Amino acid sequence: MTVRVGVITFPGSLDDGDAQRAVRLAGAEPVALWHGSHDLDGVDALVLPGGFSYGDYLRAGAIAALAPIMSEVKDAAAKGMPILGICNGFQMLVEAHLLPGGLIRNAHQQFIRRDQRLVVENADTAWTSEFEVGQEIVIPLKNADGGYIASADTLARINGEGLVAFRYAGVNPNGSIDDIAGLTNERGNVVGLMPHPEHAIEPGFGPDTAAAMRSGVDGLKFFTAAVSAVVASAA
């Protein structure tokens, strides 16, 4: 079967084209979707890409969470469709209450970009099943509003229920509580993270590794895992 993955473009999206390329390299068909639409065009999975939707006014992702297409995104999430929010997309998911907590300005008040080490905390989601718990991966990070926050009760719940998908390793780049870099919902179909897996999909363009400069492709497994999850659910 041909797996079709929708990538939603919002005003101010920057990485929608990169996300579409990642989908294509994972063996699926990327489908461009528009924030003002109410039509998901029959896609099997969704990506909310990085960028600065609506100029990050109010709070990053806050206005995008109210975009017309987000009604369909919420319905799709409730039905179990795999949905990935990357950076600004992660911010949209928490603002839309599809993931718990919130994201605020980095603790040092500066934009940061770096190749970031992550530890995989949950490998039972549609987007992380090709990793192993405890595995360390390297994914590029670039954000100004990546500080994850949550109430004590929410933090206890997400830790207790295994909803932390990734934690920062080596350095916490933005002051996120408990080193949280990414989350999943209870069902495991919705995942959000601040680093950008679509920038680690192709040799020659990814993070440096011990093997060679820019040879890191850890991000590709996010997309191939989702493709496999869709195929398995259709079998």
Automatic annotation (TrEMBL):
Protein name as annotated: Phosphoribosylformylglycinamidine synthase subunit PurQ
Subunit-level organization: Part of the FGAM synthase complex composed of 1 PurL, 1 PurQ and 2 PurS subunits.
Active site, renumbered: C87 (nucleophile), H196, E198
Enzyme Commission designation: 6.3.5.3, 3.5.1.2
Source organism (scientific name): Microbacterium dauci
Tree of life domain: Bacteria
Entry-linked InterPro entries: Class_I_gatase-like (IPR029062), PRibForGlyAmidine_synth_PurQ (IPR010075)
Keyword Flavoprotein: no
Localisation per UniProt entry: Cytoplasm
Catalytic activity: L-glutamine + H2O = L-glutamate + NH4(+); N(2)-formyl-N(1)-(5-phospho-beta-D-ribosyl)glycinamide + L-glutamine + ATP + H2O = 2-formamido-N(1)-(5-O-phospho-beta-D-ribosyl)acetamidine + L-glutamate + ADP + phosphate + H(+)
Keywords: ATP-binding, Cytoplasm, Glutamine amidotransferase, Hydrolase, Ligase, Nucleotide-binding, Purine biosynthesis
Free-text function comment from the UniProt entry: Part of the phosphoribosylformylglycinamidine synthase complex involved in the purines biosynthetic pathway. Catalyzes the ATP-dependent conversion of formylglycinamide ribonucleotide (FGAR) and glutamine to yield formylglycinamidine ribonucleotide (FGAM) and glutamate. The FGAM synthase complex is composed of three subunits. PurQ produces an ammonia molecule by converting glutamine to glutamate. PurL transfers the ammonia molecule to FGAR to form FGAM in an ATP-dependent manner.
Residue ranges the record marks as coiled coil: none
Gene (name only): purQ
Major location category of this protein: cytoplasm
